[in-house]
């Protein structure tokens, strides 16, 4: 996977957000942050995609949990800030509902303060 200059990417996203969308410096900065904070997760997922059989089931499960509990939130925040449109459940799977298969989702804290779902 290529090396990305995260700072340059964030700066460019912020610049375009200010110039094209007329957003404030603070909001433009936040969009750049939300569009790049998950790049480490993306790199891990990309490596998995290059060789899907390399990881154990447990490792794939952990990778999916980490990716899906981090990336979508950042993208939803960036989308709302950039477009003004909130995330909706376009696939009708209850994606914006706080239940999991009809049950409330309970979150537990992981090391580093992030959260992961428990069954």
What does this structure look like?
The protein is mostly helical and about 120 residues long. It has 4 helices and 4 strands, in the order H-H-H-H-E-E-E-E. It has helices at about 5-20, 25-35, 40-50, 55-85, and strands spanning about 100, 105, 105-110, 115-119. The strands form 2 sheets. It has a two-stranded antiparallel ribbon with strand order 1-2. Strands 3-4 form a two-stranded antiparallel sheet. Strand 3 and strand 4 (about 115-119) form a beta hairpin. Helix 1 crosses helix 2. The model is unreliable at about 115-119 (pLDDT under 50).
Question: Can you tell me the residue ranges where pLDDT is under 50 for at least 5 consecutive residues?
Answer: 114-119
Major beta sheet summary: 2 strands, antiparallel
**Spatial order of strands in the largest sheet:** 1-2
Helix/strand class: mainly alpha
> What Rg do the Cα atoms give?
17 Å
Q: H/E order of the elements?
A: HHHHEEEE
N-end to C-end Cα span: 33 Å
Strand content: 5-15%
Number of strands: 4
Amount of helix: 40-55%
């Amino acid at each position: 996977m290529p090396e990305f200059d995260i700072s340059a990417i964030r700066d460019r996203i912020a610049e375009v957000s200010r110039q094209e969308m007329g957003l404030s410096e603070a909001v433009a900065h936040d969009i750049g942050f939300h569009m790049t904070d998950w790049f480490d997760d993306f790199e891990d997922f990309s490596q998995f995609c290059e060789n899907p059989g390399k990881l154990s089931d447990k490792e794939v499960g952990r990778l999916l949990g980490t990716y899906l509990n981090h990336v979508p939130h950042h993208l939803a925040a960036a989308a709302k800030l950039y477009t003004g449109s909130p995330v909706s459940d376009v696939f009708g799977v209850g994606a914006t509902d706080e239940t999991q298969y009809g049950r409330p989702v309970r979150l537990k804290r992981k090391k580093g303060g992030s959260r992961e779902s428990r069954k």
